Hints:
Helices cover 15% and strands 29% of the residues. By secondary structure, the chain is α+β, with helices and mostly antiparallel strands.
Amino acid sequence: MSDYNSKVVPFVPLPKTFYLRDDILDILKDSIGKIILHKENNIITAGRIVEAEAYIGKFDKASHAYRFGKTKRTDAMFREGGIAYIFNVHKYNQFCFVTNEEEVANAILVRAIEPIVGIEVMMSRRGFPKNIVNLGNGPGILCQSLNITKVLYGIDLTSYQSELILCDDGFEVRDDMIVKTKRIGIDYAEEYRNVNWRYYLKDNKFVSRK
DNA sequence: TTCAGGATGCGC
DNA sequence: CGCATCCTGAAA
């Protein structure tokens, strides 16, 4: 893995059009291998998405948008794609990016990252875990590493100005490198509990569960 | 493997 | 105001 810290960061924000394509499973597939970049002042941390799940607002019984409708908590899901939807489960935050047009309420939950930039900072935020996989192998864990909190609720992910950006660094993911399984922790979702809307990068050690 | 932590906010 | 949760770390 090359060291991006000393170079001009080659990360390009994903354009709005990335989020607005019709088929959310295409967006899910293409999100594997992309970069989440967080910057506060001069501190930059970033990681590669290696695991993510799709949630379809209108009918998917696992989706917050379906379960709760449009509320204060879920409001960001109903906005136009390209922004962050951040929520709390127990004492941990989780990060989604919203996709598709206004009112569609689709989102991709990021479940694991491979740390790329600012590993020392992430270690510090996580309390110096023994194993580096513990910087990225879960939705709550990656939010701690990247310092993603509800302060960033609704933030634009497509702008260089933003504190949180989804980027492309040219990393290529072939279809045969992606494993598709059922989603984690949504056994209440009836007929949607077993759909294969969880994608992860094959053989990547940061994936939360195999 | 289990279990409690303890934030959030929906829904009664 | 009760309670379930798109989870995690520690204990056994």
